[in-house]
Design goal:
With 779 residues, the protein is of the alpha+beta class. It has 7 domains: 2-61, no CATH class; 63-73 and 186-301 and 376-412 and 475-499, Aminopeptidase; 77-179, no CATH class; 303-370, no CATH class; 413-474, no CATH class; 502-633, no CATH class; 648-775, no CATH class. The protein is 44% helix and 20% strand. The chain contains 28 helices and 26 strands. The strands form 7 sheets. The chain has a 7-stranded mixed beta sheet, covered by helices on one side. A 4-stranded antiparallel beta sheet has the order 5-6-4-7. A hairpin with a 5-residue loop joins strand 21 (532-533) and strand 22. The longest helix has 22 residues, at 112-133.
Length: 779
C-alpha cells in the first residue's frame, strides 16, 4: 500500500482519486487498504489530500503493540514523607530545652550559632530514624526536604504510612501524600468476574524516526516511548455463555502531553485502539467484543468514594498556580501540592479542574466536597455511550456489524455473616461427604497453608451441609456493556486486513517455504515484525520472523554439534525453553553485529529483530516447559496437540509396537514422507497422531483410502492408551490436565462417526484412569 501511494499518487489528489488509484492497483489487497486508509479517506471525502499526509497516515498504522501489564492491573502510588511546619518548630523547641538544661547559670544565654548546628543534628537524627522505620524494599528518593517512594500498591503505601507514624519524637504530623495515576486508593480498573486482564500500549514508530517524541504523562508509564493509546481489557462470559473480550478503558496521553502527539493520533488513536482489540478478539476465538458503559466509567473515577474534601486557593508568584490539599474519608491529609492548570486536569480530571480554576481566590481557601467531587460524569458518559458507539458503528458498517448491548457476568463476595468464618480464604476444595455411621454429613476442605484436609463442620443431613456450603459461593452479578458479535465474515475480514495477523494463503506459504530461504539475511530481517504474544501464551510471527528463526536454529545446531544441518522452513513449531534461551543469546550476539552495520540493517530492522528477541524472552518466561511459535492460525491446533503430547511424556513403547502394524505407519504417503524424511519412532507416532486428531487427512490423501475411518480410530485409540499408561499418575485431582484435557478441547477439530467423536476410546481411557485412581488400585 505504501509503495503504491509513493509510486502512483501525485503530490496532491482528492480522497476519491486516491481511493480509485488503490482500487485499480493489482498489488494492494482491498481488505488491507480499507483497514488502514478507509476511515481517513471517508473523513476527507471531497477534500484535496497532500501525498505526504497520506503516507504519514499509512506509516502511523505501522504501530507496535507493547504489553504493559498482565494480571489484575497496576497501582501507581507514590508516598512522600516530609516534616511538617509544626514538626520543625517542635525540633527547635526540644533543642532549646536541651541546651537550656546545659547552662550553668540561669542568666547565661544560649549560643545561637551552636543552636542552629544542634537543630541540624537533631533534624538529621529524626530523618535517620524515620527512613530506618520505612518498611519497604523499594528505593528511597531523597529531596531537600522530603523522601519519596514510588511504584507502590495501595497496601504498600498504607504499610509505609503506618511504619512512619510509629516513630514517636513528640513531633507533630509527618505528612504522607499519594501521587500518580491512582491517587486515592481507587479500586482496580477492571470489573470483578473477568480473567486474563491485559494492558497494552500501541506505540508509534513512524514519527519517532522523524525525531518526534512524546510521553503518556503518568509516571508509571514514563518508559513507554511515543504512546498512541493505552487499552485495558479482559476476558468475560455473557449470560448466553459467549466468550467476550471486554475493553475496560481506552486512553490517549494525558492533557499535559496530548499537544505533542501528532494530529493523526489525536483524531484516530482511540479508533486504532478498538481496531487492535477487535483483531485480538478475532484472532483469539472471542465471540463478542464489548466495552464498558459511561456509567461504569463515571463510577470508577468518582472521587466521593475516596475523598472527604479538597481545599484549594490561588498561589504562585503570579497567581498562576493552585495550592491543593486533599483529605481522605478519615479526615487525614493525603495530598498537599502546587499545580498548574494542565496539572490540575491531569490529576483530577476536567470537571474538578474547572471547578477549582473558576472559583479559586488568593489568600482565601475554598472547599469541594459531596456532589462537587463527582468526576467526569457527563464527559465520560458522552465518550463511552455516544462517541465510541458512533465511531464503531461507522467502522463496523462495512462489515455488517452494529454496536448493541450485552450482559456480562461479574462477581461479588458474599456478605453473608457465615462468610466471616473465613473458610474460603483459608481452605480450598470445600466438599460435602458422609460422616460416621449415623447418617451425618460434614464439610471438609484442604487447608491452603499446608494442604491438609480438615473437617470444618458436621450436620445432621446432607441437605443441611449443602445449604451451608452454598453460602460460601459468591453470588453472580451482571453488568450491561456495549457489545457486538464477531461474525465469521467480520473475523475473516479483520484478520486479512492487518498484515501482521494472517491466515494461511498459498502466496504466504510460498514466501515462507521457497522465496525467503533464498533471500539475503538483511532482506529477511527487514521484513520481520517482531511478532506478538497471544492470550493463550503463544508467539504469533510473520514469514520473515520464521525465516529469521530458521537461520538462528541452523547456527545453534552448528554450535551444538560442530556440523552443518538443513533446517526446514516451518509454519509452526513447539520447542523447549532451553532451546529458546540459546536462540535468544545467539540473537543478542547478532543484534550487536547489526548495530555496527547500519548500512545493511537500518534502525527499523534492528528494532523489529530486537522485538522478536523480546517476545521470545516472554515466551520462555511464560512456558514452564514447551512453548509454541506459529505463522498461520491453521497450524496452531496441531502444535497445541504436540505441546500436550510432550507434556504427557508421549505414548509408550507398547503403543508404538501396535502403531507400526498400521498402514498409516507403513505407508504414510509421499506428501508426509516429503515433509518428514527422517523421524524417530516416537516423533513419527506423534506426527501421525497429531495430523489425524486435527483433521488433516485430506492434505495427506489418507481420507481416500478404503477403511480409513476405522483405521484412524484404531490408530488413535492405541496411541491414546499408551499416553494413559505412560502418564498413569493422572488421577482425580489433576484429570483435567495433560492429554485427556486436550482431547476434550479438540472435539471441534475431529471428524465424527455416528455423531460421536472418533476418539471416543480415548475418552473412555481417561474415565477408566479416573476410576482406577478413585479405587487406589495399582494401574
Amino acid at each position: 500500500l505504501e509503495r503504491t501511494i509513493e509510486a502512483k499518487m501525485p503530490n496532491r489528489a482528492s480522497a476519491e482519486q486516491v481511493a480509485a488509484l488503490i482500487k485499480n492497483s493489482q498489488t494492494v489487497k482491498p481488505a488491507e487498504a480499507d483497514e488502514v486508509l478507509g476511515a481517513f479517506l471517508d473523513d476527507n471525502k471531497g477534500k484535496i489530500l497532500d501525498k505526504r499526509d497520506v503516507l504519514d497516515f499509512i506509516g502511523a498504522n505501522q504501530f507496535k503493540v507493547e504489553t504493559v501489564v498482565k494480571g489484575e492491573g497496576k497501582e501507581t502510588h507514590t508516598v512522600t514523607v516530609r516534616l511538617s511546619d509544626t514538626a520543625e518548630s517542635d525540633i527547635k523547641e526540644k533543642v532549646e530545652i536541651e541546651l537550656s538544661k546545659e547552662l550553668e547559670d540561669e542568666n547565661d544565654q544560649i549560643d545561637w550559632t551552636y543552636f542552629e548546628e544542634a537543630v541540624g543534628e537533631k533534624r538529621q537524627q529524626v530523618w535517620e530514624d524515620i527512613t530506618a522505620a520505612i518498611d519497604t524494599e523499594k528505593p528511597l528518593s531523597f529531596g531537600d526536604y522530603d523522601v519519596k517512594i514510588t511504584g507502590l500498591t495501595q497496601a504498600e503505601a498504607n504499610k509505609i504510612q503506618e511504619s512512619v507514624e510509629s516513630v514517636d519524637y513528640g513531633i507533630a504530623d509527618i505528612e504522607k501524600s499519594d501521587e500518580g495515576e491512582t491517587k486515592f486508593a481507587r479500586e482496580p480498573f477492571v470489573q470483578s468476574g473477568g480473567t486474563d486482564h491485559i494492558e497494552v500500549f500501541l506505540t508509534d514508530t513512524h514519527f519517532a524516526e522523524k525525531g518526534q517524541k512524546w510521553k503518556d504523562g503518568h509516571d508509571v508509564y514514563s518508559d513507554v516511548k511515543n504512546p498512541i493509546v493505552r487499552v485495558r481489557a479482559g476476558t468475560y462470559t455473557d449470560t448466553d455463555g459467549n466468550k467476550v473480550f471486554v475493553v475496560q478503558e481506552v486512553q490517549l496521553p494525558d492533557a499535559a502531553n496530548i499537544a505533542d502527539v501528532p494530529k493523526i493520533y489525536q483524531k484516530y488513536g482511540e479508533l486504532m485502539g478498538f481496531k487492535w482489540a477487535l483483531n485480538y478478539a478475532a484472532a483469539n476465538g472471542f465471540e463478542k467484543l464489548a466495552f464498558t458503559s459511561g456509567d461504569t466509567q463515571a463510577d470508577r473515577y468518582d472521587l466521593r468514594k475516596y475523598v472527604d474534601r479538597i481545599e484549594y486557593r490561588k498561589a504562585g508568584l503570579y497567581d498562576d498556580k493552585y495550592a491543593v490539599q486533599v483529605f481522605d474519608k478519615n479526615g487525614r491529609r493525603v495530598q498537599d501540592e502546587l499545580f498548574s492548570d494542565a496539572e490540575l486536569e491531569n490529576n483530577y480530571g476536567k470537571d474538578i479542574a474547572r471547578r477549582i480554576t473558576e472559583s479559586a481566590e488568593e489568600y482565601k481557601s475554598k472547599e469541594l466536597s459531596g456532589l462537587d467531587l463527582a468526576v467526569g460524569g457527563n464527559n465520560l458518559k458522552n465518550r463511552y455511550d455516544k462517541t465510541y458507539v458512533s465511531m464503531l458503528n461507522k467502522y463496523l458498517g462495512k462489515m455488517g456489524g452494529r454496536v448493541g448491548t450485552s450482559e456480562i457476568h461479574t462477581e461479588n463476595r458474599s456478605t453473608d455473616d457465615n462468610y466471616k468464618y473465613g473458610w474460603t480464604d483459608k481452605f480450598a476444595d470445600l466438599q460435602v461427604v458422609p460422616h460416621g455411621n449415623f447418617g451425618e454429613y460434614k464439610i471438609i476442605g484442604k487447608r491452603k497453608s499446608d494442604g491438609e484436609t480438615i473437617t470444618l463442620n458436621v450436620f445432621d443431613t446432607e441437605n443441611q451441609a449443602r445449604a451451608e456450603i452454598e453460602k460460601f459461593k459468591p453470588p453472580i452479578k451482571t453488568e450491561t456493556v456495549h457489545a457486538f458479535p464477531i461474525t465469521d465474515a467480520m473475523r475473516e475480514s479483520v484478520l486479512q486486513g492487518l498484515p501482521l495477523f494472517k491466515r494461511f494463503s498459498a502466496e504466504e506459504n510460498r514466501l515462507l517455504t521457497e522465496v525467503l530461504p533464498a533471500e539475503a539475511t538483511a532482506n529477511v530481517i527487514k521484513g520481520a515484525s517482531g511478532g506478538r504474544m497471544t492470550a493463550a501464551g503463544h508467539l504469533e510471527i510473520n514469514p520473515h520472523d520464521a525465516e529469521t528463526l530458521r537461520r538462528l536454529f541452523a547456527e545453534d545446531y552448528f554450535r551444538q554439534h560442530n556440523k552443518e544441518t538443513v533446517e526446514q522452513p516451518f509454519a509452526a513449531i513447539t520447542w523447549n525453553v532451553a532451546r529458546m534461551r540459546r536462540i535468544i543469546r545467539l540473537g543478542r550476539e547478532f543484534s550487536a553485529q547489526m548495530a555496527e552495520d547500519t548500512e545493511n540493517f537500518p534502525r527499523d530492522a534492528a528494532r523489529n529483530f530486537q522485538a522478536l528477541l523480546d517476545n521470545l524472552a516472554g515466551l520462555a518466561r511464560g512456558a514452564t516447559d514447551y512453548g509454541i511459535t506459529f505463522v498461520f492460525d491453521e497450524a496452531l491446533p496441531e502444535e497445541e496437540f504436540h505441546q500436550e503430547d510432550l507434556r504427557a511424556r508421549r505414548t509408550d513403547a507398547q503403543a508404538i509396537a501396535e502403531l507400526k502394524q498400521s498402514p498409516l505407519w507403513t505407508n504414510p504417503g509421499a506428501v508426509f514422507q516429503g515433509e518428514y524424511p527422517e523421524l524417530t519412532d516416537a516423533d513419527k507416532a506423534s506426527e501421525l497422531a497429531a495430523k489425524l486428531a486435527t483433521g488433516q487427512a485430506e492434505k495427506y490423501g489418507w481420507n481416500k483410502r478404503d477403511g480409513f475411518e476405522a483405521e484412524k480410530a484404531k490408530f488413535l485409540s492405541a496411541w491414546g492408551r499408551g499416553i494413559v499408561r505412560e502418564k498413569w499418575t493422572v488421577c482425580l485431582s489433576d484429570i483435567q490436565n495433560g492429554i485427556c484435557r486436550y482431547y476434550l478441547q479438540t472435539i471441534g477439530y475431529t471428524d465424527k462417526i455416528n455423531g460421536e467423536p472418533f476418539n471416543r476410546e480415548i475418552f473412555d481411557s481417561c474415565r477408566e484412569r479416573a476410576e482406577i485412581c478413585a479405587s487406589k488400585s495399582n494401574p
